[in-house]
Amino acid sequence: MKMPTLRRGLLLLLPFLLAGLFASIACADEGDPPARVARMSFAQGKVSFQPSGETEWSEATVNRPVTTGDRIYTDQDGRAELEVGPFSVRLSQATDVTLANLNDQLMQLGVGQGTLRVTVYEMPANNSVEIDTPNGALILQSAGSYRVETAADGNSTQVTVNAGTLQISAGDLSQTLQSGQAVRLTGTGPVASSNLSVASPDEFDRWCAGRDRRIESSTSVKSVGPAVPGGEDLDAHGTWTEKPDIGPVWIPSDVPPGWVPYRNGNWVFVEPWGWTWVEAEPWGYAPFHYGRWAHIGPVWAWVPGPVVVRPVYAPALVAFVGGPGFGVGIGIGVQAWFPLGPREPFDPWYHHGLNYGREVNVVNVTNVRYANREVGVTAVSGEVFRGGQPVQRGMVRVDREQLAHAQIVAHPEVNPTGRAVYGARPVAPPPVHAYRAGGQGPASPGVQAGMHTNAPVPGPHNVTPSGGPPNRPFPRVFSRTAPAATNAPFAVRQDAYSSHPGRPLEPQQMNNLRQGKPAGPMRDKESLPHASKPQSQSKPSSSHGDNKHH
User: Fold this and answer.
1) Within its chain, how far is the Cα of 143 from the centroid?
2) Are residues 66 and 94 in the same domain?
3) N or C: which end of the chain has fewer CB within 10 A?
C-alpha cells in the first residue's frame, strides 16, 4: 500500500527538522529573542495599546503579548494588568506606562503619569525591576509589593513600599526604602525627598491584593510553574487529570462542541517573533505559548510538560501546512496550521541561536508524527490571516485528500498589514503626553524618546508625534538603565518584509532600519521548505485605520 504523501514527506523531513532545529538554524546565540514576554491579563474600561515604534493606538485586548517598546494607557474608567513571569504590573485609571525594556534579566517600566502597583512574587537571581519616573528611577531589590503614583504634570511622584526593598536614584539623591516606608519625590533638578506615612489601602489596592491572592492560591499555577503567565486562569475553566505516557493534562470545560486549539482568535505580527497567536478565550494564554495539545478521545487536552525555572515563550506552538498545489481547489493564498502534539518539536521561524532552539523545546522529542494534522487543521484565506482578522469568520474547509498532498512548511508566506501589527481595532489617541528626545539630541526612529539616564533637564518641551494630542509636555524620566531601542516603524519595515514573505526581521536588519539604512539581506537558513516560490505581493497598507473588522 502506497504511503500517503504527507506521511512520506514527514519521514523524509525528520532529519532536516532535528538537524536544522539544533544546528543549521544557529548562526549565533546573540540576538536571541527574550524568553520572557508580558501578557495583557486584564483590561477593563477604556484601555489603549501602542505597539513599539508606532504612533497610532488600538484597543488593548486580553492575551495580547506585550514586549519592549509597547505602551499602555488606561483612561479615566480604565484598569489593566500585565503578567511577566514572577512579576505582576497593575495600572489604575489615567495611567501611562511604556515597557521600556523586557528581557530575561530586566523589566523596566517608564511611567508618564498615573498610579501603578508592581508585585514581585520572586526576584530570580541576576534579575532586576526598574520603574522610571520624572522624579527618580526606582530599583526594586527584592520580592514585595510596591506602589508608584506620578502626577500628570510630572512634578511629583509618591513611592510606597508595602513589602520589600527599593532604591531611589535621582541625580545626587540616593535613598533606600524598606517595608512600611513611603516618600514623595518632587522636582527634576535637584530632586527633593520627603517622608510620608503609608496610606490606608484604597479600592485599587484591594483589587490588586485580590488579584495577587488568585495567583498565590492557584492550583494550576503550582502545576505549570510560577514563571508561566496565566496559569491561575485555568482553575475555573477546566480540570486536571493524569494520562498514561503523557503525564498531567488540563482539559478545558467551557468550550463548544467541535472546539479546536488555535481556532478561536487571530494572528498578529510582533517583532522579533513575527506571526503570533492571540487566543480569544480569557484563559487562552499559557496553553498557546507553552506546552503542547493532545487529542484524547473526543476532547482536547493541554500538556504543559515539565515545570522549569525558566520557561521559554513561543509565539504559537503549531506547524504550518502548505506546499506546491496546496491552494488548488481551496483558494490561492490559503494559510493552514495545526497544534503540535506531545514530544513534537517546534521549529521557530524567527532568528535564534542553538541554545534557544534547545530551550524552547523542553520536550523529549521522540518522533515527528504530527498526530494532530488530521483532527486539528485550521485554514483561512490569506487576507484573513495577513489582516489579523478573527479566524472563525473566514475559515476555509480542507478535506483529507488535500491534506494528504500537503507538506509541513517553514512559516506562512504572507506579510502583515498594519492591522495585524496593532492586533485590534483602532481607537482615537488617548490624552497622553508627547514624548520628547533625551539629552543627546533628537531621538532616532529606534530610540524611545523621553527616556534618559540620570541627567535631569528642567523645562517643558512640546514635541507632538503624529497621532498624539497637541501641546502636552512630557517631562523626561530618570533611568538607571538605558532603555532598549524600539522597533523601526512598520511603514519603514514593509519593504524589507517583501524579500522573504512571512519572516520577521533579523536583528541586523532592524538595526539597519533604525539607522536609516536599507535592511539588507536575511542571513538565517531555514530547515523546512516553503509552500511555494515567493511571489510578488501588493504592498500591504501601513494605515491602521484601513484594516478594520468586516
Assistant:
1) 23
2) yes
3) N
